[in-house]
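task queued by scheduler; priority normal; single chain, no ligands, no partner chains; default sampling; output format set to structure tokens
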Amino acid sequence: MKNIFKLVLLIMTIATVAVAAPQEKKGVRKDRSTLPIKIKSNDLAADNKGRIAVFTGKVVARHDDITIYSEKLTVYYAEKQGDVEKIVAERNVRIVQDNRIGTSEHATYESKQGLITLTINPKVMQDNDTVTGKVIRYYLDEDRSVVTSEGSTRVEAIIHPKPRKSDAAPRK
């Protein structure tokens, strides 16, 4: 029973791809919505009345400690002062934070909620460990993730044990 509990804790740790930078108080939500987003792409089409901007072609978006790569990135703005409501990345999506990488064909990033949702072949990797499922949700500020399955698609985690200090150093 103790080993099962350790395995579940390890899976939850591995599945957390995009963990926010350490915060002073646990449970305090980091407001990324006030931080700038830097986006580079081949093309941009903006619709001020529709409150969207569509970036296409080798898109790279940086927001705080998160970098999103995709072929298409749509930014949705709120009515209030042009705040970003959400960002939708499509085609060859890769989200990087530290040594964690999430990939999929579709991702939604909601900065105010601190939530990244990966769909369409989502996969998360950290070092040699991976987790896959139908939908992967990362709650950045809560240091947790939820991986769900649907139908015949099941959640799968591959976890490699970390070397123990006694295993890593040769004995004399």
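post-processing summary
- The longest strand covers residues 84-97.
- The chain has one domain: 13-21+31-164.
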